[in-house]
Amino acid sequence: TSAAAGGPAAFPSDLAPPLQAAASLDLGKKLKDLVQVHGTQLLLDGVYNADPHPGNVLVLPDGKLGLIDYGMVGRLSLEDRLLIARVILALRDENVDEVHRLYTAAGYRAVSARSGRAHPARVVHRIATFHLDKIDLRPVDIADYSDPEMGGPEMRSIFSVLSGTIETSVPDWIEQSRRLGGLLVGVSSQLGRPVSLAHEWAPIAEKLLEEHCTAP
After folding, report:
1. Mind listing the pLDDT tens digit for each residue in 56-81?
2. Local structure of 69: helix, strand or coil
3. What is the signed CA dihedral for 175, 181, 182, 187, rounded to 10 degrees?
């Protein structure tokens, strides 16, 4: 029925192919492709698009990704990329102490605004999880077991911990990688396809370490 006769208006014929393509799009696969591309740039190339928000990502008619607007480009040294690779593998393995060691040895410092004390390993690990892995909203144990007077777990909402955290020192490689990681994790979560960067990037991290004869 024509629109002039009071029936429903048809879509313009030139919109049919894009609509059909959108209907058949495997969004989860495209997001994983996006994550893999930026993991390769970050870890293997050391030069990456530092602003991969949805407006800078196109799905082309042939199904390939089109990445535009490289006006904000990040650069990382090999030394920094090796550190990121080790953190990614430690996050994948849920190695709380190793993540804490790597962050602390690199100069990362975060304290509780309430007590002024440095965050224990479990809190630093959770912060790093937000940086380079995923959104984890579970409560976190803030107890410092190096204190002999600490009797047991002290669980806190992750929101209260993050809002009550003061970062006094953030190495550049953490600042750069967490911006990229946060954007990718956020985009994936908004689209209902959450990813674990640590698991997706682990093979890339292992390749980097193997190429430079460096044990994880």
Report:
1. 788 888 878 888 888 889 999 999 99
2. coil
3. 150
pTM value? Answer: 0.84
Is there a contact between 99 and 91 (Cβ–Cβ < 8 Å)?
yes
Adjacent-strand bridge partners of 140: 156
> How many other CB atoms sit within 10 Å of the CB of residue 95?
15
44: which DSSP letter?
I
- Cα end-to-end distance, the chain, whole Å: 66
Length of the chain: 216
Q: Are strands 47-49 and 73-75 parallel, antiparallel or unpaired?
A: antiparallel
164 phi and psi angles, rounded to 5 deg:
-100, 20
Interatomic CA distance for residues 41 and 72, integer angstroms: 14
The per-residue pLDDT for range 139-161, each reduced to its tens digit, is 999 988 776 666 678 999 999 99
Contact 45, 84 (CB under 8 A): no
158: closest CA among 199, 109, 125, 193? 125
In angstroms, rounded to a whole number, what is the distance separating the alpha carbons of residues 135 and 154? 21
Residue 178: strand, helix, or coil: helix
Are residues 158 and 135 in contact, defined by beta-carbon separation less than 8 angstroms? no
Is the separation of the CB atoms in 200 and 32 below 8 Å?
yes
The phi and psi torsions of 47 (rounded to 5 degrees) equal: -135, 125
3-class DSSP assignment, residue 120: coil
Structure tokens at 196: 């674990």
